[in-house]
Write a structure and sequence with these properties.
The chain contains nine helices and nine strands. The chain has about 260 residues and is an alpha+beta fold. It has a six-stranded antiparallel beta sheet with strand order 6-5-4-9-8-7, sandwiched between helices. Strands 1-3-2 form a three-stranded antiparallel beta sheet. Strand 7 and strand 8 form a beta hairpin. Helix 2 packs across helix 3 and helix 5 runs antiparallel to helix 9. The two termini are about 15 Å apart.
Length: about 260
Amino acid sequence: MKQDKKISSDSPDFVASLAGGLSVLLTFDENHSTMTLSEVAERTNMDRAKARRYLLTLHALGYVHKDKRQFKLSPKTLSLGASYLSSVHHHDIIQFYLERVTEQTGESCSFAVLDGDEIVYIARSAAQHRLLSIAIAIGTRLPVAYTSMGRIILANLPQEELEAQLSNLELSAHTPNSITDPKIFAQMLKDAKKQQYAVVDQELDSGLRSLALPVYKSNNELIGAINISTNAMRISQDVLIETFLPLLRDCAEKIQTYYI
């Protein structure tokens, strides 16, 4: 899972206008589905004139709807995510095995990949009960340090990549249980690599307990991680390890057989 070196924003190859347009698209979310020009400018830290040009261009291209002073994303933006998902090999197979785990456990099961200092959900089988205070869907991004999938991916990175990640990683408390000491965090990653699974217990959201395993190609190249997320009041750590871990390992092994 080698991360390509990125150019800096002051590089002559960096297209600032493209970056600005993308930042406008990304500023829309669940809590800001419809915004005025002023709100977009404020959330993107742009001046109004620049934000207006981006919004009107996106409107002309069909990625944004405009209703008087209000702007919102159009369904065409789905094509951007769909292009990525169609390029993910065996996405339907991953989804099938995630759903099998949910059927066996009654819990949500997900697959995610690393992107910078976050994980991105690529596939998900949701249980009927909601666990997080935020809704999880394909494309949801969460901090790599406080998710079980993020930690098990970090734990299995080559040493050079891991050191680069840790040097830029922000450890900030989301709950009273959040690990913020870099030394303790580094030791947890070592333990996770040794046992080849990671448990995160109520560090991102109170009541959320999750277990994750790395997912490899058949040539042992790391491609992402899968997890089971549970309610800490219902599911103990013992149940996670003794009952759910073997099921999740079987899921990871089956997915691996399809990646040549």
